[in-house]
Design goal:
Blueprint lengths: L1 E9 L3 H19 L2 E6 L4 H7 L5 H8 L3 E6 L16 H9 L4 E7 L17 E7 L9 E6 L2 E6 L5 H17 L3 E6 L5 H14 L6 E6 H10 L6 E4 L1 H14 L7 E5 L5 E5 L16 H13 L4 H16 L13 H10 L3
Parallel strand pairs: 1-2, 1-3, 3-12, 5-10, 8-9, 8-10
Antiparallel strand pairs: 4-5, 4-11, 6-7, 11-12
Helix pairs in contact: 1-9, 1-11, 5-6, 7-8, 9-10, 10-11
Bound molecules: nicotinamide-adenine-dinucleotide (NAD).
């Protein structure tokens, strides 16, 4: 397979970790006979420095012309005082919007080797994928200020169309088919009309996926169940706001921000893949960043954009071997640097 990949390395540790992930991708491509063509574009603070804007036209076009996008991280203290529309983070929103990426996939997995870093006393580990609707719901509804019964008030409104629910629903059922074939849809259908439409629509869709064990759960219960017994979940699908909150809750259960990848997907196969952490300005340039979140983001790309499951499995297994072998960066309590951990992971892809 020939893959055209747009790289948005960004700021801080972004370039270091993207370079590491590309070395791992090269190794897998060599093993399976794929050809990867990389093109780098400016995004975030580095783009502001070079062009005055966080997402230059050329960068967005480069992403549109690519088969997928790999992003490091953007931002840093240098750009913190800029006005909102000129902030580095605008680049992320711009790419999501430009590529119409409406589904955010965030796995939260507790690796055996890192079990003691989990704040829970979980013995069996867990491996959850949260699918969050990214472009609708209360974050994008009508809002404002007005005079109310008790004086000045503010309001935000949530709306979801059947089309929006169906498309995120399909992403989550398809993801469940590629994993443990279990899907939990999380809503607040006892109170919210949008949640009742969400639930009806998901139920209808579930008939098309008889192999997937489907269930609903109320969001307040889900927040408890994630702490009580995270291993009960495989794939979770939920709305923008509930997903925002629950994915952060789940990520903390894994014990380290340097381990967690993410994917943003739209209608076609093209997606944007990135670690969930930021540009870590405190350790940038020292070569000690943990590259695993970005390396696992590449594995997600192979699985979700290109249906190359064996290749993705190889990367994930190599990461697990490196962890089991104690080849760890400082954030995980180890003494190795980025290059040494990357080299180990590559060595474990045979
Ligand atoms: P951060 O995630 O960059 O860092 C938080 C802490 O985690 C720091 O101590 C950092 O050293 C550590 N850390 C993060 N990633 C690591 C890795 N791979 N290996 C080892 N340690 C790691 O969050 P922050 O400090 O709040 O934000 C720094 C900058 O990043 C800000 O400008 C923020 O706006 C930006 N940011 C960008 C993104 C993104 O690009 N998607 C996301 C979050 C924050």
């Amino acid at each position: 397979m020939n893959i055209k990949l747009a790289l948005l390395k960004g700021d801080g540790i972004g370039p270091e970790i993207v370079d590491s992930a590309c070395l791992v991708l090269d190794k897998v491509a060599e093993k399976y006979g794929h050809k990867i063509e990389y093109k780098s574009y400016l995004a975030g603070g580095c783009a502001i420095d070079a062009t005055g804007v966080p997402l230059p036209e050329e960068t967005l076009q480069g992403c549109l012309d690519s088969d997928s996008v790999l992003l490091g991280a953007v931002g840093g203290p240098k750009w913190d005082t800029l006005p909102g529309n000129l902030r580095p983070e605008k680049a992320l929103l711009g790419v999501r919007k430009g590529l119409e990426l409406y589904a955010n996939l965030r796995p939260a997995k507790l690796y055996g080797a890192l079990a003691e870093r989990c704040p829970l006393r979980v013995t069996d580990g867990f491996d959850i994928l949260i699918v969050r609707e990214l472009t609708g719901g209360i974050y994008f509804g009508e809002n404002g200020r007005r005079e109310g019964k008790y004086g000045p008030e503010a309001y935000d409104t949530e709306s979801y169309s059947i089309t929006e629910i169906e498309r995120i629903g399909r992403v989550s059922f398809d993801a469940a088919m590629k994993r443990g074939k279990k899907l939990t849809s999380i809503d607040k259908a006892n109170i919210l009309e949008t949640s009742r439409l969400w639930r009806e629509t998901m139920h209808r869709l579930s008939a098309e996926y008889p192999e997937v064990e489907y269930s609903d759960m109320l969001v307040d219960n889900a927040a408890m169940q994630l702490i009580r017994n995270p291993a009960q979940f495989d794939v979770i699908v939920t709305s923008n706001m509930f997903g925002d909150i629950l994915s952060d809750e789940a990520s903390q259960l894994t014990g380290s921000i340097g381990m967690l990848p993410s994917a943003s997907l739209g209608e076609g196969t093209r997606g944007m893949y990135e670690p969930i952490h930021g540009s870590a300005p405190d350790i940038a340039g020292k070569g000690i960043a943990n590259p695993i979140a970005t390396i696992l983001s590449v594995a997600m790309m192979l699985r979700y954009s290109f249906s190359l499951s064996k290749e993705a499995d190889d990367i994930e297994a190599a990461v697990e071997k490196a962890l089991d072998g104690g080849f760890l960066t400082a954030d995980l309590g180890g003494t190795l640097n980025n290059a040494q951990v990357t080299a180990k992971i590559i060595e474990f892809i045979v």
